[in-house]
Hints:
Number of strands: 22
Helix content: 25-40%
Oligomer: single chain
Radius of gyration: 24 Å
Strand content: 25-35%
Structural class: alpha+beta
Largest sheet: 10 strands, antiparallel
Strand order of the largest sheet: 16-15-14-13-22-21-20-19-18-17
Shape: globular
Amino acid sequence: MDSADLARLVAFGTTRSFDSLLVARHGRIVLDAYYAPYSADIPHAVNSTTKAVVSTLTAMIYKDGLLDRLDHPVLDLLSDRSVADVDERKKAMTVQNLLNMTSGLDWDEGFEGGREQSMRDLGVSPDWVQFILDRPMAHAPGEVFYYNSGNSHLLSAIVSKLTGRSTADYANERLFGPLGIARPFWRWDPQQLSIGGFGLALRPRDMAKIGYLYLRNGEWEGKRLLPSDFLDAVGHATISMNARFDPALRYANQFWAIPDKHLYMAVGYHCQVIMVLPERDIVAVMTARDFCPFGKLADDISGAVRSDQALPVNSAATDQLVKAIDEVSIEKATKVGATPATASVISGKTYRFSDNALGIKSLALFLTDENPHYKVETSAGDPARRRLDGPIGLDGLYRKGTPGFLGVRAAKGTWQNEQTFVVDFQYIGLGEASTWTFTFDGDKATLRGKARNGREASAEGVAGG
């Protein structure tokens, strides 16, 4: 593969907020880039790429005979539950329908916009599997494609039921372990079932191993892990995703495909992608904080191929690629304002905020300490995880905190003027970032930022209040 073309690919990643970009051909890694402040050792939330992992586990229990056939009715497999709105259509819903997103369940996930009401309702449900099974039928199974994370969660429930263990434990023994992937973090629902539609965190090289398993027709170190008929369906996807943003997209077994470009891929929100190009013998992995153009990336990756053999040494192109990787891997400092006298006045004070859409109960900034840091108490989420603390960079560079289950918290801050301090805060590897603007006036502080719904919000705080 041409190093100069790969260098241009690395540069393109900066325009789409990439965290990583990996390309392997003929089993060798030819490009492995990490965009600061992300780094190779930090697990990345892969979002809906989790679906492809659960699909892979479903294929494994099918190969091993724990699941007798892919067209087995779902309700038969989960017969210990009393299900609402059962009709002939729901009785006919099969595992294959779940895999292909053609279950027919009434669902709103906002695939191309919308409220995502079903996902909101699922999130507050005390029993996710029951909530999904109780949904009424909108169509006969197999009739209509509709992207539905509930389908994927039912697959996780089936894997757990038929193996007699948690989906995560089964994955660690049968998939992650053989592929040399350390036990990853995987979120679970209120019943401690591994979430089937999202919630898994993997390192880019781990993602590449999963892609390589598919590229090598389900074999790993001479052992067949996946059945050939399942792989054939993935490689020849025919179900239209009815996507207005790309009519060429097809679907099969929780994988996306672009047949015209001879590729299939596992896809997660904001470009968490495992792309397999069998004709080029390539696996490519991207993780990012923004959406990306699948077709362009596939064309650029394929376009870098020059030969099936090693290319002659091209020192200039090699230097260009090395420079491009170095350029993105080193964090560039942003502009920092002068430190005003206010910094000493507010440093160490705890400001308590009234109820607000930002979910912040209290915050203290320690800006004059030898090691500047912050302490935050939030009002949302697990009570055990509502208190956050970590270092904060005052030189235009992020300071990383201790790695946690959500990735690595990092923060940096700067003074805009005598009273206004701005903090850029992100979970590296999670894809979440926020900017908080504090305006101080004596013992009062006003906090402005974006709430989880994306709307601007503010909160009023008092020191020690």
